[in-house]
């Protein structure tokens, strides 16, 4: 027996591409209206309070927060280059010591020889600042290119608030993962947040009914994870995996849970609690290391 192909509820002669994220009715491309969470049918678009994006508005929307994050990362890198006399162009500069992620350590070179640094020394801000520091120009370039592509995609579809929430939850989750796996290694980079964006992209596609095997991001993710584990001596496995998990969870909350409970504000609050939980867990891990 041939499997039944779902057809659009408004155009019975047209196969349905997805289902409405509000009412679960099958809809064809002509009836698909992009909302901040998935696609809506024409009736739910008229009745719903969510902002709805047309195809042209998605294409032309400027991912401003993505650009701001890239600007901050580049600005911090240039400042580090100035403070370190250009040393940060190839490896970590002065700011890496001052803001990089590590549970507890004693400096062994430089004018601050013997100084105790680390999250367990009361420097809790390292959980966040480490995500805006980089070891050299190549490190920065790879992360900023990935942020430009993935951030632009997610921000255009989900909007700056959801995108920003996913980014920072992923960043903190990446710091938690790095502290769990390698608490004594000074870790910097935006790659935890970038991996989180990959996870969020998977969650976004899943919320639209796209199977994982058909996902456009899964191949990129598999290749990057292979590189991560192959070069685990120089790449933070914990930071990448932690960020990925944080992005998957926050994306699931914002794209799936929000649709089910029909309350975007509650979903954002839940993501906020997830970020706080990861931050508290990171501090606990650092003090216990």
Molecular structure report:
The chain has 289 residues and is mainly α. It folds into two domains: 1-60, no CATH class; 62-288, Rhomboid-like (Rhomboid-like fold). Helix content is 57%, strand content 5%. The chain is built from eleven helices and seven strands. It has a three-stranded antiparallel sheet with strand order 4-3-5. A hairpin with a 6-residue loop joins strand 1 (18-19) and strand 2. The longest helix has 25 residues, at 237-261.
Average of per-residue pLDDT values: 86
Instruction: Give me the Rg, rounded.
Output: 21 Å
Give the beta-strand count: 7
Tally of separate domains: 2
Report the structural category: mainly alpha
**CATH domain fold name of the largest domain:** Rhomboid-like fold
What general outline do the C-alpha atoms trace?
elongated
- Strands in their spatial order, largest beta sheet: 4-3-5
In N-to-C order, the SSE pattern is: EEEEHEHHHEEHHHHHHH
- Number of contiguous helices: 11
Name the CATH architecture of the largest domain: Up-down Bundle
Distance between the termini: 60 Å
Uncertain stretches of 5 or more adjacent residues: 49-59
Largest sheet: 3 strands, antiparallel
């Amino acid at each position: 027996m041939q499997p039944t192909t779902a057809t659009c509820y408004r155009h019975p002669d047209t196969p349905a591409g997805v289902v409405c994220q509000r009412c679960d009715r099958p809809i064809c491309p002509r009836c698909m209206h992009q909302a901040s969470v998935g696609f809506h049918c024409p009736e739910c678009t008229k009745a719903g309070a969510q902002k709805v994006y047309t195809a042209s508005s998605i294409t032309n929307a400027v991912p401003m927060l993505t650009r701001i994050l890239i600007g901050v990362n580049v600005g911090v890198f240039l400042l580090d280059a100035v403070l370190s006399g250009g040393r940060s162009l190839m490896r970590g500069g002065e700011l890496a010591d001052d803001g990089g992620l590590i549970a507890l350590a004693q400096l062994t070179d430089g004018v601050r020889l013997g100084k105790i640094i680390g999250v367990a020394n009361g420097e809790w801000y390292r959980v966040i600042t480490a995500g805006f520091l980089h070891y050299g120009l190549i490190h920065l370039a790879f992360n900023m290119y990935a942020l430009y592509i993935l951030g632009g995609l997610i921000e255009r579809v989900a909007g700056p608030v959801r995108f920003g929430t996913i980014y920072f939850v992923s960043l903190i989750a990446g710091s938690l993962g790095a502290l769990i796996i390698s608490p004594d290694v000074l870790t910097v980079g935006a790659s935890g947040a970038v991996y989180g964006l990959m996870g969020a992209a998977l969650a976004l596609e899943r919320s639209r009914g796209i199977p994982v095997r058909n996902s456009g991001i899964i191949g990129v993710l598999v290749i990057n994870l292979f590189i991560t584990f192959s070069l685990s001596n120089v790449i933070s496995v914990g930071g990448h995996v932690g960020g990925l998990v944080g992005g998957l969870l926050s994306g699931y909350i914002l794209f799936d849970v929000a649709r089910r409970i029909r309350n975007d504000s509650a979903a954002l609050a839940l993501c906020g609690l997830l970020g706080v939980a990861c931050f508290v867990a990171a501090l606990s891990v650092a003090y216990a290391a």
